[in-house]
Specification:
Rossmann fold, 163 residues, 8 strands, alpha/beta
């Protein structure tokens, strides 16, 4: 991995969100729901919801990364997960910040399969080594990405909160 970093600012995030929304719209896909993968996909899911006029936004919590270049063996969905019955027959757009290994996106896409009319995936960044090719991606990079919401340390000591 290169020591250079991909830096996403809040301004660039706004640009990426609008360009991704336009790409989704231009493709003819009209999602009934946006399923945002927490935490990284929350801001993108919200932004796409407004840009694509989709009010039905749901969240799925997936844990995979535990630190910079530190991850669990496999991603796991944390409760509460959306009920499959709630997704029945919907066109779902699964949103995340990055498809790095692609395992998180793959897990959530597989969760949707068989329950939805159609599931497509959207990310701000995808990486060449990802096991899944997102349907929509703003940029491809091999670099570590500094996202504006996670580049600075927390303002509180996470260990003091009982986590």
């Amino acid at each position: 991995m290169s020591s250079e970093r991909e830096v996403l600012t809040y301004d660039l995030f706004g640009t990426a969100t609008r360009e991704l929304a336009q790409e989704v719209a231009d493709s003819g896909f009209r999602p009934d729901m946006i399923l945002a993968i927490a935490r990284g996909g929350l801001a993108l899911g919200m932004g796409l919801g407004y840009a694509l006029a989709v009010k039905n936004i749901s969240v799925v919590n997936v844990e995979f990364y535990t630190g910079v270049d530190q991850r669990l063996d496999v991603p796991i969905m944390l409760p509460p997960t959306p009920a499959a019955i709630d997704l029945s027959g919907l066109k779902v757009l699964v949103a995340d910040d990055v498809a790095d290994t692609g395992r998180t996106l793959e897990l959530v896409h597989a969760f949707c399969e068989g329950h939805v009319a159609e599931a497509r995936t959207v990310v701000i960044y995808d990486k060449p080594q990802s096991v899944i090719r997102p349907d929509y991606s703003w940029r491809t990079t091999e670099r570590w990405i500094d996202f504006p919401w996670s580049v600075l340390p927390p303002v509180v000591d996470p260990n003091a909160l009982g986590h």
